[in-house]
Design goal:
Blueprint: H1 3-21, H2 25-45, H3 51-98
Helix pairs in contact: 1-2, 1-3
Length: 99
């Protein structure tokens, strides 16, 4: 694996983490798409990896799993917030209708 690819993977994980922290879900989605393309291209070009490459890919995968889990948690929290907001809005609309 080239050093450039390893560096790119680490930079992309850091970028995804930053997008997630800032609730920038549009950039997070585009970052996932770009990462997916890069990984697909990388694995299509290679078949054999040395031990250092395997270890680097394992570390990347572990970090990637953490980002996915945190994304799922944020998504659930956001869905709850939106649901709560909509319920409150309906209550306000009913209250306004009673007046």
């Amino acid at each position: 694996m080239s050093v450039n690819c390893l560096d790119y993977l680490e930079e992309q994980i850091d970028a995804l983490d930053s997008y997630l922290e800032n609730n920038d879900f549009d950039s997070l989605e585009s970052g996932f798409v770009e990462l997916d393309k890069k990984l697909r291209n990388f694995f299509e070009q290679r078949e054999n990896y040395n031990e250092d490459e395997v270890e680097a890919l394992r570390n990347f995968y572990a970090n990637f799993q953490k980002i996915i889990k945190r994304t799922e948690i944020k998504k659930q929290a956001l869905a709850q917030q939106i649901g709560s907001h909509l319920r409150n809005q309906k209550k306000i609309d009913v209250y306004k209708g009673i007046k």
